[in-house]
């Protein structure tokens, strides 16, 4: 390689697409090739879901020590287990509103700093109230990251890769959960009486790494364009998609009455209702299993350390199911995937409820089946909300749906220890099955199909048509 060629290669921006098509794409943004920038953005955005899975799962292992040391009742266990979910409910909507108002980039790292501070503070928690408050604050920070990171990723990603990359965020949730159970079991074995404190504080390390990696991420050009900041939007487009990209490559998403309340009245309320119900039915059984997984498996005759190991193995199956769903989301389409996922995972839970005294290998097989099949609904939690609402309110819509779904998840998690005592494991699993089958029913009635659409097409209601590409002059101020 000549010195000139070497210098040229070294000065190539890291976000230059890895392959250049022989003919220009139909649209330099929606039909762009996948670049290193997109891959890095997807990786950095996945930090929030990783921490979510880690934080919500580590408490299940830590509870084995927390309960006797802090003398927790069933009700107190439920509150502490649900505290992060309650925080997500509060943080997701506020974070969504803030990211629509002030931009995606500004809040992209601030929320993780809050997780670091509160995770460290958990080490010195001395009573249930203090622990509840800290985990509530952590949940608020995690919830705020949902609309921030997913909106940013959705607005940069070409349509062909949007489903898999957004769905991939959920994969990282399960990576975080699996990591939590492995770390928790090691600390429980070797950490002594204070092992639970080290467990809860351990989220500090990955959160710090993610904050450092996210530094320097550019603002969404779609958000900038919708705020009338055309020159800044075009500068970002050229940096990410190449020097030929212009503001004209962004289709207009201007709509009348674009505040969230007006959009709900103008026809998007049905979409919000479906997203909320589908998301709730998807996460209530799953979060309950994660918050009290060892106790549930113990009730199903997998005892002690075997319960924690079983939970880790089930988490690996959850992860595998999400990866399989990523390969199906574009091939099957969104609607068939969500319906089949709900139906067959509900059947697995139904069998667990009917046969709670089955042999251990049968119990594990049914849990593994549930974990594999529910992956379709899990990845669509991030795909559907980001596709079905316009840029002006995408963050608020994702935040509102996430917040609303966490109401049911928090109530369900709180009631798990009470249900196990009152109904037994069979009744608890039957209730979980009913929730999954409810999700199947509402999906048959309301689930839309958005495969292959641009963001503007997917966010446009069926009786309306997307606008023409925006002109740079129309946005300059």
UniProtKB/TrEMBL annotation:
Q: Where are the transmembrane segments?
A: 41-66, 78-99, 106-124, 130-153, 165-183, 195-213, 272-292, 312-330, 337-356, 362-384, 396-416, 422-447
What are the entry keywords? Membrane, Transmembrane, Transmembrane helix, Transport
* Region Disordered, annotated ranges: 1-31, 456-477
- What family does the database annotate? Belongs to the major facilitator superfamily. Sugar transporter (TC 2.A.1.1) family.
Primary localization: membrane
Ranges for domain Major facilitator superfamily (MFS) profile come to 41-451
One Pfam match, given by its short name, reads Sugar_tr
User: Under which name does UniProt file this protein?
Assistant: MFS transporter
Q: Which organism is it from?
A: Streptomyces solicavernae
The membrane topology noted for this protein in its Swiss-Prot or TrEMBL record is:
Multi-pass membrane protein
